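User: quick one, fold this
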Amino acid sequence: MNSKQFFFGLLLFISYAGFAQTNSREVLFTINDKPYYTDEFARIYKKNLDLVKDDTQKDLDQYLELFVGYKLKVNKAYKLGLQNNAKYQNELKSYRTQLAKNYFNDTKITQELVEEGYNRLQKEIRASHILIMADENATAEDTLKAYKKIEDIRKKALAGEDFGELAKQFSEDPSAKENKGDLGYFSAFRMVYPFENAAFNTPKGEISKIIRTRFGYHILKINDVRANRGEITVAHIMILAPKPDDVDKDSKSIINDIYKKIQQGEKFEDLAKQFSEDKSSSSKGGVLNKFASGQLSSEEFESMAFALKNPGDLSQPFQSQFGWHIIKLIEKHPIKTLEEMKAEIESKVGKDDRSKKITASLNEKLRKKYTHKRDNKQFAALTKLVTNDFYESKWVQPANAKEYTAPLLTINAKKIDGRTFLEYLDRQQKSGLKTKPVSKLTEELYTKFENEQLTAYYDENLENDFPDFANVMEEYRDGLLLFDLMEKEIWERAKTDTLGLKAFYDEHKMEHMWKKRAEVTIVSSTKEDVIKKAQALLKKGTDVQAIKDKLNVNNTINVMANSGTFEEGSDALPKTMKYDVGVSNVFKEGEYYFVTNVKKVLPVAPKTLEESKGKMVNDYQQYLEQRWVDDLKKEFAVKINNDAFSHVKTQLK
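Assistant:
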């Protein structure tokens, strides 16, 4: 975590706390006649009350002093023009975008979609399908043609004709010729949402209604429904099926020999590294990434893997379309609880077609929330400017496009001109839209344009519509400026002003004292006879490593040793240790026996600047900051409204 992330971590955490604001709103103080109000002071005081460790900061008079100092620094930042820094503006914009996402989400619908997805994840469905392709942007004529074709096929299926044979004959999914439309088992979030809906809403053994996806029209037959088997991690050894020129290769014989080696006690992992022809996993002892039903292209492999019961179980050698395998079960991963999966499912909801429900809900709310009106006369004039060249991405805006400044759309008091719509149309040419005639196409695009404009207006007015959002943004805006200002004025100066730091140290060094210290070696053991041997060796001048080498034998640690200069009260020192130079007598504390060798005793003394530098730099920063705030009070005119402060003190107490 970098320093800026740490600086804002607490600020952003408390900004979501959502404390109620005080009802009254008076001017608490002014800085150069700019007012700051009691409600902001009360709100921020409440948010920080339980988080501050220094009781003086809970004192309202002291807190007002801190709050005024904070606002003085922000005013200084604006005076220096730090708000115009491109890096600052980009960071603020990025943060606002992240924060705003919470306000574009329909909590109720999102929760419903999360629960729906989780409930569906409890099952696996095996379905076959027939696809008749129809591009999303296909003409009405082509779309109708595709629909009639799938409709005729569905009638045949409902009349009892074999679904697999119909898929093989008519489906435009290229794999249908081989698999007769059989998709194997799948669960939620594996197929596009409309397809998934049809799969989970059609009873086992029945044919679905006709559904439309971005690929075209489908019908499904539900072959089976079972409980979700979760995910599984396995390792495997694979011998590829022989190629035509592999005349001497007998894959089955090789895999059987490997299986015998495993039965004789040879390690599966070693054999996988040596013999497995799946090069993506052999170097890892054959271990594959965990998978669920339908994620591999081999049903035989999945079935054999999930049939294994306990970690370490092995399959018999078996054949898939790729060759011969032996599988070893590593771990089974059952479906997690809703609480455990909630964040993951929310992410999936936001990434697939389900999110269209959330967008549609927002669009509907915004249409009710804001007054919006289209100028139909202006729209008709603009529609006439769009030609059939649009379908080939060759349409060019009219030369006088900039003259279409009359309002086309009005949202509350905001007016969006015709030129903006023309620019939007220009950008949409590459979308491959085929709706005809052009008038219908522009009407379709206008609806999307209006939705985008309503959403943009909503985004622009989040601060007006949501006081909590405005407060968080204001705090972040000021905090970001303050970080840049403090870095510039205080933190870097405290680190680099060596003369100033030295002078500050000389003035305050008696506040940073060492207690009595000892330069000592401490040897400990749970065995009295061993510690006595260590004592004898210390008296002979034997060094610590030699003592450990001599007494720690047969992989048994009989003694531990620690050497260094330690301050009185240090946890490293035995509590009853005497500060006498030389080797001590053996003494016991708790379960341990100790002997010490004190080489030198250092008296109470001030720490050097280097020894106290971290704390000294921090104190120097606070000193510089206080002096700086005093200077800011002279630079800016601060006026406190004592009556308002008395009122807010009464409310907060």
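User: anything notable?
Assistant: The chain has five domains: 1-79+475-509+607-653, 123-227, 231-333, 370-462, 513-605.
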